[in-house]
Specification:
Layout (H helix, E strand, L loop, with lengths): L7 E14 L2 E14 L3 E6 L5 H8 L3 H9 L5 H16 L3 H4 L5 E8 L2 E2 L5 H7 L4 E4 L3 H4 L6 H10 L9 H14 L5 H4 L9 H13 L5 E5 L7 H18 L2 E6 L2 H7 L2 E6 L2 E7 H6 L4 H9 L3 H9 L32 H5 L4 E5 L2 E4 L10
Parallel strand pairs: 3-8, 3-9, 6-7, 7-8
Antiparallel strand pairs: 1-2, 1-4, 4-5, 9-10, 10-12, 11-12
Length: about 375
């Protein structure tokens, strides 16, 4: 991709995020690059297990701590040695590529407002996490404190970053009510003292959105914000996100495997499978003229009504993706989609495709893109 411009809020460059498990080293995110501009929404779109949430955790500076925690439950001599090698390499300022061995943890660059987040100390990262970069996690029932009312929980993001004691309670309450009103939670004066159990799942999800919005972030990461709610509630949640984005001129990274969510909320889309971004482009291009075989197969496996109409017009049929995703404990040789792709040749098995720009703003990782039938 092109060099980082002045209007770029976030640029992820050559990002790798690996962790250890009982199976060994898991290559969750494997050398990906993308960027988000001011006021832009980019979607990470792909099947479960593709590495989307790992990207979010890496941006938030949480991936390695979580990986080390779970490593203790899968401790064996090989895994312990890998983490020791990681710590030794970090002290010497060298990468796993220079050593010639894949190591757990995060490598690459995550540029945010001109600074590389991966070079920050934890105390400096805390000033950004939950303040300039906020996060809407999956599942409101596990993310909200059942014992605190929503006014207290929404205000936490302000109090936590008030290092200079500039806030007062009146201003905080005013901001809380304004933000809860922005996500359309109803009569906020009446409901601010209620606890999460007194709300529906969709309303709790909107509380999480309010918590992510209240610090006036530069970037908001939304991880499957419409999971486990029905279609009507999904639409209301997405509307709340869109209204807030437009009013606050907010940049967003939307993580989802739902075509409708991505289509409604995103300007551009990065398609992920097996830890790799295999296609990147505008939402219109990805949804209407997908180029990578995985993108086409994934869209057809769970199509929107527009895609269903297109499938019928072309005499095609709806079908799932054959086979299973590759084992991420094994190094990727060739294309990450090669075992499930109907267009695979020997070159796809032997050589990793170059991630290249096939049209302005449209990037694909595929040897055979020019040979594929039109969509």
């Amino acid at each position: 991709m092109a060099a980082m411009g002045k209007d770029v809020v976030l640029r992820v460059e050559g990002l790798k995020a690996f962790y250890t498990s009982k199976k060994g080293l898991i290559r969750a995110v494997n050398d990906i690059t993308f960027e988000i501009r001011k006021g832009e929404s980019v979607g990470l779109f792909g099947e479960s297990g593709a590495g989307k949430t790992s990207v979010a955790l890496a941006i938030l500076g949480m991936f390695e701590d979580i990986s080390r925690h779970f490593a203790s439950t899968a401790a064996n001599e090989d895994n312990v040695r890998l983490w020791e090698m990681k710590d030794e390499a970090r002290k010497k300022g060298i990468t796993s590529k220079e050593i010639g061995v894949d190591l757990p943890g995060v490598e690459g660059h995550i540029w945010f407002e001109g600074m590389d987040l991966l070079t920050l100390k934890e105390k400096d990262y805390r000033k950004i996490r939950g303040n300039e970069i906020t996060y809407i996690p999956q599942g409101s029932t596990k993310s909200l404190n059942p014992y605190s009312n929503i006014e207290e929980q929404t205000a936490e993001g302000l109090w936590a970053h008030d290092e200079d004691d500039e806030l007062n309670e009146f201003l905080v309450i005013k901001k809380v009510l304004q933000t809860l009103d922005l996500v359309e939670l109803g009569d906020v004066d009446l409901r601010k003292g209620m606890k999460p159990s007194q709300f529906s799942v969709g309303e709790d999800q909107r509380v999480l959105i309010a918590m992510a919005l209240i610090p006036d972030p530069r970037l908001m990461i939304a991880d499957e914000p419409t999971t486990a709610v029905d279609m009507a509630i999904q639409l209301r949640i997405m509307d709340a996100i869109q209204i807030a984005r437009e009013e606050m001129h907010l940049s967003m990274l939307m993580i989802s495997n739902n075509q409708g969510t991505i289509s409604q909320t995103c300007d551009k889309v990065a398609v992920m499978t097996a830890g790799h971004i295999v296609e990147f482009g505008t939402t219109e291009t990805i949804m209407n003229s997908p180029g990578h075989p995985f993108t086409r197969a994934f869209i057809m496996s769970n199509p929107s009504m527009a895609v269903i109409r297109k499938i019928k017009e072309k005499g095609m049929r709806i079908r799932g993706i054959p086979g299973t995703p590759p084992d991420l404990s094994e190094p990727t040789i060739g294309c990450p989609f090669k075992e499930r792709c109907e267009y695979t040749l020997d070159i796809c098995r032997d050589k990793k495709p170059e991630y290249r720009e096939v049209e302005p703003g449209h990037w694909i990782m595929c040897h055979r893109y020019e040979e594929l039938p039109s969509w």
